[in-house]
């Protein structure tokens, strides 16, 4: 392949792209190829465009390196290295250099002033170059000079220079001079608007001087075709720029326009959330969250964008703004008493290796307090460096002012928390329950079911809200049960113990007798009559267990087993309590939720309440086991001692403990073994648990071990047993979340058992349940499963829709503080593949570009895969230039990564494209592909395919040796395959077409007829029809029309109906039939 031609093609394709990873990859490869070709002119073109693209992104190092190289070449030889290269202008690109230098205290004021002088010189050179030449008098009399273009160029130059000066003045702390430059910018913007209205119909005016829109693109700053239509007065049909939106947040709050500020925040954040060069705007949005006290939202923004601090090492000005904003927010988080806040809350985003190095954080978990201190310390360091360079105290003053504002906010927050209590309580109804009638009285068991569903779908807020509703309903039910109906009922009501109320010990110390506390609570607590009437509850306050994990029982705890169980006085069995065990189950769920969020203190406190309730319900064996094991029963792994669960299980079996307690220990052991990747041991424990639960169809306790058992059986590849377990589980009355999980798991098993239709039904039902629950993760899993099943069944309708629903849910329904859903890129890739299979190339290309822009750049194999499919997407759109660029990049990446298989695949696609375009470069590409194929000894089919296509290319460009290449392909195939009839037919047809290209028509005729017979032997009607049609055309070329007619007829019999090929063949058949004089009575012969 000709290096210069290849580089020029890549540059031309890059000019068609706005920006992004694809354009950057094209330009980097073009520069590399230009260096290999020894063409400094092409390298200049590529580097100038790279600098322009870097100016529109957070790659200031690349901008400075490339623009310095280009400026040096231009000043040396302005004829060879012209100031304008295609759509890119050197002066416009260089306009981004002074602000970039000023944004870093590493560059001196002298260097910044020198860059401003160089910019002014380049702009003056451009103005002179665009001045009209001196016409003669005769030309002036017929064509008056038009100076509007030169005037517009001068306005553009003045604007670029003034804007650069203003950025430099702000970064160097000279705000008074910067204000005058801002005024000048406003005047120039108005003049440019007027000039745009007069000379350009689109009206290319700057939306805002501070806005990094197309006007800040140094590659197109003076190009009218790239200017926005947005007016300075804020036209309604164009969104305001991100900078202006971010700066408007504080004034809106100061005017009390809270709803407008909220809308502006949401709108402005969506404009900047995916672009690291908007770090300063992100800082303003974090500051907004601190101002309104939305700390949860602020922490989400910090989690998403904290790593942007290390993206651009030279943009320390934006880094300084971000550090101040993050420090202020984290100070509030440390002072807040709300759930999920506090100084010890973990900030996982700060554990990025680059951030640890920048902030000087030690290894280990990073808390809000430690990160806040590190941010303030680094902000002071950066401020000191700026002030040392600028010779002022501007930045240190800003830092001190920010700390003062943070102190004021923290004081206000502490006062608010003291007024509202030690724990902020929200009364807002979660979104999952807003459709429920607020006046409806759901029973407590239904609220328990709803809480389990919300916990299963990773909605802890909704689960806790449902738990609270269930407790309230239990209080109402208890109050209604205890209401006196006559005078004698009052004493009975007072004598009846009240659940949930614990008496705190008089001396709350490290007591080891929580059972005594529970028993005392059961004996001594007598709720007041007014409480029974109103249903009011007294908040139970019980000290937590001493330490997480195993709890050492006190002497005499085993005496609980000998307690007499109270019963009715008359000996008759008590009626079943429908709410029995509901409060215990609620506590179990609340303990697990606390463990999930890492709040072990809260988990221990609720576990103590659960033990008291178990004692109140006379479930003494289970209470005793939970006292001895503590949080180990709820999934907390032991920190020091091992084997406590096993020892407790042995003791329970020996002591004839109730099956309920044994099941609890067995479930905990099974869950622990699954976490430890020991599924075979988990199966033993879980089978024992299921056996103890029995076969009662109404048994709720068996559901959890059955679900765990099915997962363990899937883990050790026992699909038959797992399916049987799931069949039994699904016959129970499950909550919707557990049913959806079980259906999805069974769908995957059914697919493996070739029961795709049944699997499809299960996946569809799971999707319906997930949508009912507003379960984002479940919806994504169900959509992915459903789409995979449809692809397996080769049912195209619905595949794209299923993948698109999964992508939409991952994009809009996922908001857990991370940048994106962890599977979003994979889902987009599957969607793009499905779009390509449906021949919707433009949509597929859009999805693949989104993946390229978001995917990590240090994994060449993944990028090569994306580029390979991007080429296919462009090929469907008949954009051969873009397909060429994509496949050539993919081939280069695969070859550099020594991925021979991927290189062969990309090389065959690129070689076939070039061959269809009659480009002789296809020979070089296919020769390289053949060399890569020979590096795959265990896959000879790759070499056969490469030899086959290489032979076609050789013959297409007149090389007779291509015929021998066909023979080598067949010989290589025969070495590893017993049946090569299909390949023989394909190669024979290719040989026929190659002989035709070489001008050997007689040999081509014989070979084409043989290929048609071989296809018919294989019952490949379509391929046989094409071979017969080629044979008939060869006969027509040789003038043998009489022989061509029956061959045409045979081709029409075999070709698929209603295709363009058939229509063309019918037309040819009739034309040939008309040329042949038909005998009498044979007129119908010309009609197929």
UniProtKB/TrEMBL annotation:
<feature type="compositionally biased region" description="Basic and acidic residues">
    <location>
        <begin position="195"/>
        <end position="236"/>
    </location>
</feature>
<feature type="compositionally biased region" description="Basic residues">
    <location>
        <begin position="514"/>
        <end position="525"/>
    </location>
</feature>
<keyword id="KW-0802">TPR repeat</keyword>
<protein>
    <submittedName>
        <fullName>Uncharacterized protein</fullName>
    </submittedName>
</protein>
<dbReference type="InterPro" id="IPR011990">
    <property type="entry name" value="TPR-like_helical_dom_sf"/>
</dbReference>
<dbReference type="InterPro" id="IPR019734">
    <property type="entry name" value="TPR_rpt"/>
</dbReference>
<feature type="region of interest" description="Disordered">
    <location>
        <begin position="495"/>
        <end position="579"/>
    </location>
</feature>
<feature type="region of interest" description="Disordered">
    <location>
        <begin position="129"/>
        <end position="157"/>
    </location>
</feature>
<feature type="region of interest" description="Disordered">
    <location>
        <begin position="195"/>
        <end position="244"/>
    </location>
</feature>
<feature type="repeat" description="TPR">
    <location>
        <begin position="1025"/>
        <end position="1058"/>
    </location>
</feature>
């Amino acid at each position: 392949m000709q290096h210069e031609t290849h580089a020029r093609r890549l540059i031309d394709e890059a000019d068609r792209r706005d920006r992004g990873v694809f354009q950057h990859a094209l330009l980097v490869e073009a520069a590399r190829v230009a260096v290999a070709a020894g063409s400094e002119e092409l390298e200049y073109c590529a580097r100038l465009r790279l600098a322009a693209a870097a100016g529109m992104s957070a790659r200031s190092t690349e901008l400075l390196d490339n623009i310095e190289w280009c400026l040096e070449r231009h000043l040396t030889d302005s004829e060879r290295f012209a100031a304008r290269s295609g759509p890119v202008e050197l002066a416009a690109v260089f306009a981004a250099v002074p602000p970039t230098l000023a944004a870093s205290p590493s560059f001196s004021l002298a260097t910044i002033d020198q860059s401003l002088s160089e910019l002014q010189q380049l702009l003056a050179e451009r103005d002179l170059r665009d001045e009209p030449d001196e016409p003669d008098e005769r030309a002036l009399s017929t064509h008056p000079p038009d100076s509007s273009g030169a005037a517009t160029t001068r306005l553009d130059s003045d604007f670029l220079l003034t804007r650069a000066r203003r950025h430099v003045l702000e970064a160097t702390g000279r705000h008074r001079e910067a204000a005058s430059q801002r005024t000048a910018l406003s005047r120039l913007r108005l003049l440019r608007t007027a000039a745009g209205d007069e000379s350009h119909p689109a009206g290319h005016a700057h939306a805002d001087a501070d806005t990094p829109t197309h006007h800040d693109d140094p590659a197109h700053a003076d190009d009218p075709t790239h200017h926005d239509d947005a007016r300075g007065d804020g036209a309604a049909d164009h969104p305001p720029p991100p900078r202006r939106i971010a700066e408007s947040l504080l004034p809106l709050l100061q005017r009390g326009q809270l709803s407008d500020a909220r809308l502006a925040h949401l709108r402005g954040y969506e404009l900047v959330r995916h672009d690291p060069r908007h770090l300063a705007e992100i800082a303003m949005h974090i500051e907004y969250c601190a101002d309104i006290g939305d700390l949860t939202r602020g922490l989400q923004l910090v989690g998403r964008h904290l790593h942007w601090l290390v993206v651009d090492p030279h943009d320390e000005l934006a880094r300084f703004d971000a550090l101040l904003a993050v420090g202020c927010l984290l100070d509030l988080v440390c002072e807040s008493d709300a759930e999920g806040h506090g100084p010890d809350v973990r900030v996982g985003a700060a554990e990025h290796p680059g951030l640890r190095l920048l902030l000087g954080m030690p290894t280990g978990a990073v808390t809000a307090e430690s990160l806040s201190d590190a941010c303030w310390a680094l902000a002071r360091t950066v401020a000191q460096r700026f002030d040392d360079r600028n010779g002022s105290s501007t930045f240190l003053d800003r830092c001190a002012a920010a700390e003062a504002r943070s102190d004021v906010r923290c004081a206000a927050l502490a006062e608010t928390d003291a007024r509202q209590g030690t724990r902020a309580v929200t009364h807002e109804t979660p979104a999952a329950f807003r459709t429920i009638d607020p006046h409806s009285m759901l029973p407590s068991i239904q609220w328990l079911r709803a809480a389990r569903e919300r916990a299963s779908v990773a909605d802890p807020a909704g689960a806790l809200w449902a738990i609270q509703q269930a407790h309230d309903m239990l209080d109402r039910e208890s109050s209604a049960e205890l209401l006196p109906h006559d005078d004698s009922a009052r004493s009975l009501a007072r004598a009846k113990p009240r659940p949930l109320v614990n008496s705190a010990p008089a001396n709350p110390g490290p007591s080891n007798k929580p059972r005594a506390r529970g028993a005392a609570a059961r004996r001594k607590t007598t709720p007041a009559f007014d409480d029974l009437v109103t249903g009011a509850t007294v908040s139970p306050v019980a000290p937590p267990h001493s330490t997480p994990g195993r709890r050492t029982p006190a002497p005499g705890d085993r005496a609980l087993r000998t307690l007499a169980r109270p019963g009715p006085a008359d000996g008759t069995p008590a009626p079943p309590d429908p709410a029995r065990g509901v409060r215990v189950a609620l506590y179990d769920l609340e303990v697990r939720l606390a463990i999930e969020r890492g709040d072990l203190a809260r988990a221990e406190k609720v576990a103590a309440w659960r033990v008291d309730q178990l004692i109140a319900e006379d479930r003494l064996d289970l209470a005793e086991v939970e006292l001895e094991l503590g949080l180990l029963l709820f999934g907390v792994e032991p920190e020091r001692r091992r084997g406590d669960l096993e020892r407790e299980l042995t003791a329970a079996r020996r002591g004839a403990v109730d099956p309920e307690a044994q099941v609890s220990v067995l479930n905990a052991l099974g869950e622990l073994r699954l976490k430890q990747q020991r599924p075979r041991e988990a199966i033993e424990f879980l089978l024992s648990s299921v056996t103890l639960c029995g076969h009662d169809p109404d048994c709720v306790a068996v559901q959890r071990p059955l679900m765990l058992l099915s997962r363990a059986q899937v883990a050790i590849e026992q699909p038959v047993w797992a399916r049987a377990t799931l069949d039994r589980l699904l016959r129970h009355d499950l909550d919707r979340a557990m049913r959806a999980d079980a259906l999805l798991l069974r769908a995957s098993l059914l697919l493996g058992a070739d029961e795709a239709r049944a699997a499809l039904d299960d996946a569809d039902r799971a999707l319906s349940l997930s949508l009912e629950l507003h379960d984002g993760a479940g919806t994504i899993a169900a959509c992915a499963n459903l789409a995979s099943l449809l692809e397996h069944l080769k049912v195209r309708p619905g595949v794209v829709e299923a993948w698109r629903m999964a992508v939409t849910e991952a994009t809009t329904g996922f908001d857990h503080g991370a940048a994106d859903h962890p599977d979003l890129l994979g889902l987009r890739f599957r969607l793009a593949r499905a779009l390509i299979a449906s021949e919707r190339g433009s949509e597929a290309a859009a999805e693949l570009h989104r993946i390229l822009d978001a995917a990590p750049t240090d994994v060449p194999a993944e990028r090569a895969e994306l580029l390979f499919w991007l080429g296919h997407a462009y090929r469907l759109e008949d954009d051969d230039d873009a397909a060429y660029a994509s496949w050539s990049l993919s081939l280069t990446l695969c070859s550099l990564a020594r991925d021979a298989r991927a290189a062969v695949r990309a090389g065959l696609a690129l070689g076939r494209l070039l061959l269809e375009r009659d480009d002789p470069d296809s020979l070089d590409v296919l020769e390289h592909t053949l060399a890569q194929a020979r590096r795959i000894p265990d896959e000879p089919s790759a070499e056969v395919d490469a030899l086959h296509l290489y032979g076609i290319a050789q013959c297409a460009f007149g090389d007779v040796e291509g015929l021998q290449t066909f023979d080598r392909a067949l010989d290589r195939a025969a070495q590893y395959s017993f049946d090569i009839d299909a390949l023989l037919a394909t190669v024979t047809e290719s040989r026929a077409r190659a002989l035709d290209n070489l001008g050997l028509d007689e040999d081509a005729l014989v070979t084409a007829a043989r290929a048609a017979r071989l296809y018919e032997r294989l019952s490949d009607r379509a391929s046989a029809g094409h071979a017969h049609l080629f044979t008939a055309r060869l006969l027509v070329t040789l003038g043998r029309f009489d022989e061509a007619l029956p061959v045409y007829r045979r081709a029409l019999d075999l070709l698929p109906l209603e295709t363009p090929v058939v229509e063309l063949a019918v037309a040819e058949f009739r034309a040939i039939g008309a040329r042949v004089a038909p005998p009498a009575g044979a007129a119908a012969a010309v009609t197929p």
